[in-house]
Write a structure and sequence with these properties.
Elements: E1 2-3, H1 13-16, H2 24-29, E2 36-39, E3 47-52, E4 55-60, H3 65-85, E5 90-95, H4 104-107, E6 112-123, E7 139-142, H5 145-148, H6 156-163, H7 170-176, E8 179-184, E9 187-198, E10 201-208, H8 217-230, E11 236-242, H9 246-254, E12 258-269
Parallel strand pairs: 4-5, 10-11
Antiparallel strand pairs: 1-2, 2-3, 3-4, 5-12, 6-11, 6-12, 7-8, 8-9, 9-10
């Protein structure tokens, strides 16, 4: 098991693009998403283990026992204690082939794991205008420096946290991503942000404040984000959600996304 230098990322392009519904792979290859990557062989990698934020990725050959033992040791000795020290309850693991499922319990020794069903949707053209969906009393604004400088705007810190969930800083988000928010009075009611902007694609991160849910704001925000995306060089927008999250799937479909596939991921829980 050896760490892969960013200058050698091209060696793992075939492995990451084998799970191309996850745009994070292309973002890592473009060196836009900071990641720590380990491979079984730094000259001809057959398998990789990657960490990007609180997301972990397994790709390639799952039958390399020495490499898998290295992953197990890394989880036990480093990742588990570090994640708990950071105040996190767990993390997600994504993988490219069902063969990894036979290895998961051994990799995550003595930890509770949940095998989660997920769905992926994609949109390549704007099918509706957001103006016809905006509820009375709300206005939409782009997420930019002027918005972030608005005094006494409620939930602004929460928005900044979401902006840095995938980007290393607010400044990096403003330079490489975009977003739109809904405002009611002096309060942010929700936002929709682009994630992993790379190769003419991006994904969606969306949140509606609990007091403002079930008013159609998620659809409005999504349509506004799509309008901005397609007018600024984006040709495909992706949407991931848990299969049990029916409201999320319904929002995607209402906004003009088409379902692409079902897939599975794991959630590793570190606390009861």
């Amino acid at each position: 098991m050896t760490a892969l230098h960013p200058n050698s990322y091209e060696l793992i392009r075939p492995l990451l693009l084998g799970m191309d519904i996850h745009l994070i792979g292309r973002s890592i290859l473009a060196k836009q998403t900071p990641a720590q990557i380990f491979v079984d062989n730094h000259e001809q990698p057959r398998a990789l283990f990657a960490q990007a934020g609180h997301r972990y990725i397994l790709a390639g050959d799952p039958e390399i026992d020495t490499f898998n033992f290295g992953i197990q040791k890394l989880f036990t000795d480093v990742i588990f204690p570090r994640t708990l020290a950071e105040g996190q309850d767990g993390f997600a693991i994504y993988y490219d082939t069902p063969a990894w499922e036979r290895k998961m319990e051994a990799l995550l020794t003595n930890k509770e794991i949940i095998h989660a069903n997920r769905e992926y949707y994609a949109c390549k053209a704007l099918k509706h205008k957001w103006q016809g969906f905006l509820p009375e009393g709300f206005q939409l604004k782009m997420v930019d420096t002027d918005l972030l400088a608005t005094p006494n705007l409620k939930h602004l810190d929460t928005l900044k946290e979401e902006m840095t969930s995938e980007r290393p800083s607010v400044e990096d988000f403003l330079n490489k991503s975009f977003g739109v928010c809904a405002i009611h009075g002096n309060e942010l009611a929700g936002w929709c942000l682009s994630e992993y902007n790379v190769d003419g694609r991006c994904e969606v991160g969306i949140e509606t404040i609990s007091d403002y849910r079930q008013r159609g704001l998620a659809t409005v925000l999504t349509l506004a984000l799509l309008e901005h995306a397609f007018s600024h060089g984006i040709t495909e927008v992706g949407w991931h959600c848990f299969k049990r999250n029916e409201p999320s799937a319904k929002t995607a479909l209402k906004a003009g996304f088409d379902k692409v596939c079902d897939y599975k991921s794991y959630i590793c829980l570190l606390k009861p």
